[in-house]
Structures are given as C-alpha cells and as structure tokens.
Amino acid sequence: MREATVKRETKETRVDLHLNLDTPKCEVNTGIGFLDHMLEILAFHGGFGLKVSALGDLNVDCHHTVEDIGIVLGQAFHEAVGDKSGIERYGSFYAPMDEALALVALDISGRPYLAFDAAFEEERVGSFDTCMTVEFLRAFAFHAGITLHVKVLYGSNAHHQIEAIFKAMAHALKIALTQTDGAVLSTKGVL
User: Fold this and answer.
1) Among 48, 39, 37, 44, which Cα is nearest to 4's?
2) Which helix (H) or strand (E) holds 114?
3) Model confidence over 147-181: pLDDT tens digits?
4) Which ranges of 82-180 does DSSP label H, i.e. alpha helix?
5) Could you tell me which CATH class the domain 3-184 is placed in?
6) Could you tell me if 48 and 41 are in contact, meaning their C-beta atoms sit under 8 angstroms apart?
7) Which residues fall within 8 angstroms of residue 38, CB to CB, at 6 or more apart?
8) Among residues 43, 120, 153, 164, which is most buried (max CB within 10 A)?
9) 3-state secondary structure 33-94
10) Whether the model pTM is above 0.85
C-alpha cells in the first residue's frame, strides 16, 4: 500500500496529514476555506486519499499554515512513492477553468525544482493570499522531490487560475503515479 502519515508541529502550526495514493477518500480542515477546496480538488482529481488537519497562526496571516501543509504533503508523497520503482514518473496536463487555462508538467525524479509562471490580479481568494500559491507549490515540490513546472497560460479570475493549477497538477500526478510492472524509469537504474 502506497501511503504515509506525517505530522509537523512548530511554534506557528500543527499539521497532521495522511496520504493514501490508492484509496480515494478526502477529509480536509486547514482553517483556510479556499485551501481546503484546492486540497479536495487535488485529491479528487488525483484519485488519492488525503486527510489533513491543521491549526495555524491565522491571526497573523495564512503564510505559515499554507507553507507547512505544502511541506508535510511533500514529505508524505516522498514517503508513499518510496524508491520510485514501478511508476510512470512523468506527467503533464492542461486544465481549463472557465476563462483560465493552466499547464502542469512534472517529473517524480528526486530532484526538486519549481518553475512557476502565473500572475494573479486579485490579492486574495477568501482568506487565502494568492501569492501563497507559489509558496505552497515550492514547499510541496521540494519536500516531495519533484521537478514541477506550472504555467497559467491565461485567465483573469484568480480563483479560476489557481483552481486550474490544482486540477492540472492532480491529473499530472495521477499520470506520473500510474503503476507499471517495471523498475525505476531511468537509464541509471535509480533515482
């Protein structure tokens, strides 16, 4: 079973997360409604199970909570994927959301990197600061060991743009995590 449980507690946040790459069931409570919505989208469209409970210093702002959830989710993915044998490894997907279109391409390579190309006209969606999108993705990619490229090709509504990103990432992850009968997909034999 490809799953992991990770907990992180700091002076600013407490995050409890369980990830199951093979059993889709989602229960998310971060204290940030829009982030809950995005994580539910990620799990639903990615076809995996996700349980997240987070308490953070939201009286300050959403930064610490969002970033720490990205860290913990990345750590859980890293643990659940293991040595990366028997998976497709690469995934890419375009996702439209009304007027917005996003592309995500990724490689579960063990080499963390984020290329992010998106601009949001609105500063917030609910209590979620739109600038935290890149922070979440960076924390996730670096702790998961994923090379992640994200581009919003166009769009004018920040909610739609960010939702398109999360849907595209979910489908790209679903493709990359597809199980194969093979070894590690690398000419080196290891990642």
Assistant:
1) 48
2) strand 113-117
3) 999 999 999 999 999 999 999 999 999 999 999 98
4) 132-144, 158-176
5) alpha beta
6) no
7) 162, 163, 166
8) 164
9) HHHHHHHHHHHHHHCCEEEEEEEECCCCCCHHHHHHHHHHHHHHHHHHHCCCEEECCEEEEE
10) yes
The C-alpha atoms of residue 96 and residue 167 are separated, in whole angstroms, by: 9
Instruction: Supply 33's token pair.
Output: 């409604």
The two tokens of residue 123 are 């500063």
**Counting Cβ atoms within 10 Å, is residue 190 exposed (0-12), middle (13-18) or buried (19+)?**
exposed
CA geometry: angle at 113 spanning 112 and 117, to 5°? 155
Owner of token pair 């989208």: 41
- Cβ pair 144, 84 in contact under 8 A: no
